[in-house]
Amino acid sequence: MTTAASINPDEAAFFGALADDWWNPKGSSAMLHRITPVRVAHIRGLALAHFGLDAKSRRPLAGLSALDVGCGAGLMAEPLARMGVATSAIDAAAQNIEVAVKHAAAGGLSIDYRNIPVEDLAATGAHYDLITCLEVVEHVAGRDTFFAAIASLLKPGGLAVFSTPNRTPASWAVVIAGAEYITRSIPRGAHDWNRFFTPAELAEALSNAGLTPGEPSGLTWRPGKGFHIGSVISVNYFLSAMKACQV
């Protein structure tokens, strides 16, 4: 893979080294496995509402094309494909793509996986109805380049969904101190708190790229309910953005 402005080689190497353990629900990606069902349900609901699709369908997102940016080994790409989406997925780490391709093949899923920077994919002229970018923006290098590429890849009338940790004392306590150092449910060194986006900062970056951001929704946890979507955005949040239809 060629050097790209959006990619931090150290970040790509860090997560690529975890590739073989990605699908182990009790391994280094255990936290991702725990939150994936909540992510999938939330993105499904957003897409159904945005595109006016039938929630009762067995493949409710059939007819849509989607791109999962920073896909890892496919934890989001595979559910998208199962919901009927023509799914593509990219990652900066070749090791992740290798594992993702093998896992999808074993499950009989057709997913277009590529080890390619987002700006290089945008240069091909590809376009998608839905773009997901989950726990990725805090790891990118050239942020302006990254968001401009996503805006270019999104079709007019399309929907992009992001999730990322907020930059607050609460997120430092939960994500860095708690998850990385105390419980070790996230690999130590996976995050740099100073690179977290606040919702206002992420909304501004998306607006500057030509997208229209919505209101954030929080990803939170509480006893008896587990992980769920709510109004508390102090630790982690989702932010969706739309691309205006051409006149």
Mean pLDDT: 92
Shape: globular
Radius of gyration: 17 Å
Cα distance spanning the termini: 37 Å
- Low-confidence parts, pLDDT < 50 over ≥5 residues? none
What's the CATH topology label? Rossmann fold
Structural class: alpha/beta
Approximate strand percentage: 15-25%
Q: Give the tally of structural domains.
A: 1
Question: What portion of residues is helical?
Answer: 25-40%
CATH architecture: 3-Layer(aba) Sandwich
Order of helices and strands: HHEHEHEHEHEHHEEEE
Q: Could you give me the name of the CATH homologous superfamily?
A: Vaccinia Virus protein VP39
Tally of helical segments: 8
What is the C-level CATH assignment?
Alpha Beta
Walk me through the structure.
Helix content is 36%, strand content 21%. With 247 residues, the chain is α/β, with parallel strands linked by helices. The protein has a single domain (9-242), classed as Vaccinia Virus protein VP39 (Rossmann fold), CATH 3.40.50.
Write a brief caption for the model.
It is built from eight helices and nine strands. It has 247 residues and is α/β, with parallel strands linked by helices. Strands 1, 2, 3, 4, 5, 6, 7, 8 and 9 form a nine-stranded mixed beta sheet that branches.
Helices and strands, with pairings:
Layout (H helix, E strand, L loop, with lengths): L8 H8 L13 H22 L13 E5 L7 H6 L3 E5 L3 H13 L5 E3 L3 H5 L5 E7 L8 H11 E12 L3 H14 L16 H10 L3 E2 L3 E6 L3 E5 L5 E7 L5
